[in-house]
Amino acid sequence: MTTMTKEVWFVTGSQHLYGPKVLENVASDSEGIVKGLNGTSKLPVNLVFKPVVKSPEEIHAVCQQANTDKNCVGLILWMHTFSPAKMWIAGLNELRKPWMHLHTQFNAALPWDSINMNYMNTHQSAHGDREFGFIGTRMRKERKVVVGHWERSEVLAQIDDWCRAAIGWHESQTLKVARFGDNMRQVAVTEGDKVAAQIQFGYEVHAFGTAELAERVDAVSEADVSAQLDEYHNDYIISNDTWKDSHHKAMIENEARLELGMQRFLDDGNFKAFTNCFENLAGLSGLPGLATQRLMSKGYGYGGEGDWKTAAMVRIMKAMGEGRKGGCSFMEDYTYNLGDPDQVLGAHMLEICPSISSAKPRLEVHHHTIGVKCDVGRLLFTATPGPAINVSPIDMGNRFRILINEVDTVAPPAELPHLPVASALWEPKPNLSVAAAAWIHAGGAHHTAYSQAVTTDMIVDYAEMAGVETVIIDQDTTIRGLKSELRNNAAYYMLRQGV
Length: 499
Description:
By secondary structure, the chain is α/β, with parallel strands linked by helices. It folds into two domains: about 170 residues, 3-Layer(aba) Sandwich (Rossmann fold), CATH 3.40.50.10940; about 325 residues, no CATH class. About 40% of the residues lie in helices and about 20% in strands. The protein has a six-stranded antiparallel barrel with strand order 10-11-16-15-14-17. Strands 2-1-3-4-5 form a five-stranded parallel sheet, sandwiched between helices. It is elongated. The model has no long low-confidence stretch (mean pLDDT about 95).
């Protein structure tokens, strides 16, 4: 499921005032920036140079072209010279792709001994970008502003993050989520308005009875199951005792059928995320464990107990983080280690993605005790230590909110020999006392999308593209400040919706 074939268009603004020689320099410099940025091999997209725009007609045309180009996920706009901003009104009014305002200049240092007015007129981004910035603000256009010389590592990192957010937004526009069964009964936070979500984020949610899925699972051939077992041998640590036990081997074969059946169902319908529920498994052998874990590792989003919002978020974040070190998984705040410092042990009944594993996972069979009680094959591991984020998309009734908590994942202080599920141990920022209270005040769910590849800024950029509220819990969070922020946000988003 590669997303790295997408494009971001680099569009430079100028005008005819300066004459053909200056415009030749502007085009040459712009192409140089594009080649230089692409040459770093650190962007997740192909940056595409577009001819310099010098009139309202040219600006309008390139914006229309971007709207209809399926590979274009966004635009980077830069004013090399002075581009009178009234020329941009018609184009920006129609532009439906996200855009970044890059405030840079081609040369980093001034040529002190030779600088003249011709140089000043050619290299006046400081002037032109402020004019362009005004019209973006005057038109109330949401955009990312990145400032600094284009060769600086910190500028490249911001461009990388934004391009990944644009990939996530593009994924959101085309994503389809399959729900096998319904939500867990009586649970509030996994519910929500699917129509409102499609209007806001673009993704579709489709429901299917488990009998439809069971037909695909039952149709999987023995030869295909055997080939899957060979993959399991290569990918995981499996004890000889497990293979010698005919029952355990049968349970692993069962997961192979579930995996292949689900993947074929998803691929045939172009679904890149899915949910299921342990309370609604009619026709299936049990709650998929290894099967779900492997599908997530292949890039599919997942949400337990019918949680379609988190399933979509997991898929979107997997698209954002593709190619970066660190994985992404469905996650749940499960239990606490109250000590010094306080910690959270994250896990779920079965379904944690091995992309976050610190070592080669172990494949084992254990008894599943919730819902359908049966033996289920699953991968066991602990998450890689390091910075991570937990992201919770929630339906507030009159709007959506995306909640982010920055955490530090750590290695467990001891073995977990009797815990038959994969897990992640983390210390939330600023600490559990503030983070958990802030999460509860903000209405955060117990399910999250957990990632070490996606940054807070990427989620903020994505949320701004979607036009939804974000609440960040990080090192600087205080409860007093957060409650004030929530009150201010409530007023702002109510006013923004209008009467």
